[in-house]
Amino acid sequence: MLMPRQPVPTLHVPTLAHGNFKLAEDAAPNFTLVVFYRGLHCPICLKYLLELGRLQPEFEKRGVKVIALSSDGRERAQAMADKLNAPGLRMGYDLGLASARAWGLYVSTSRGVTSIGIEEPALFSEPGVFIVRPDGTLYYGAVQTMPFARPHFDELLAAIDFALAKDYPARGEYAGAV
């Protein structure tokens, strides 16, 4: 389990239009928002990433860099990016499932063709959203076992505003006896 205020796992993936992404070498002024999505086969991911693309400039105004990534290969990631039409959104691909697990993501098996007629990969990771401090430590994390009920990006923006204004620390850091 990832712990707030502790270093997050290594994250290094290629992106479609922004070169290689290495979290440790790409620190934002305030935070990096890392959005793991299920892949091209997921209609909920498309809707979710459309909202992320729409709000990306708002994150950037707050000193937050954004990346969306999945275990899809380049071709499927490009197909998702084409649907999104958000050229400024960094789209990572080829996320290894061992890396997904290191981030605490759940891994699912294929159920075949989805409701939008796209075959699910044999294995793929479920969604997760993380906010990482420039020093590489976890500030916020949310993982799902299902594609439903994800954090809303407008609420994350409000949370970032509060955190920056109040110098609010990452919570959930206690790992001692209970």
What would you note in describing this structure?
The structure is a single chain. With 178 residues, the protein is an alpha/beta fold. It has a single domain (12-166), classed as Glutaredoxin (3-Layer(aba) Sandwich). It is 28% helix and 21% strand. It is built from four helices and nine strands; from the N terminus they run βββαβαβαββββα. The strands form three sheets. It has a five-stranded mixed beta sheet. The radius of gyration is 16 Å and the shape is globular. The two termini are 17 Å apart. The model has no long low-confidence stretch (mean pLDDT 96).
Topology:
Blueprint (H helix, E strand, L loop, with lengths): L11 E3 L5 E3 L8 E6 L6 H19 L2 E6 L4 H11 L5 E3 L4 H6 L4 E3 L13 E3 L2 E5 L5 E6 L9 H14 L12
Parallel strand pairs: 3-4, 4-5
Antiparallel strand pairs: 1-2, 3-8, 6-7, 8-9
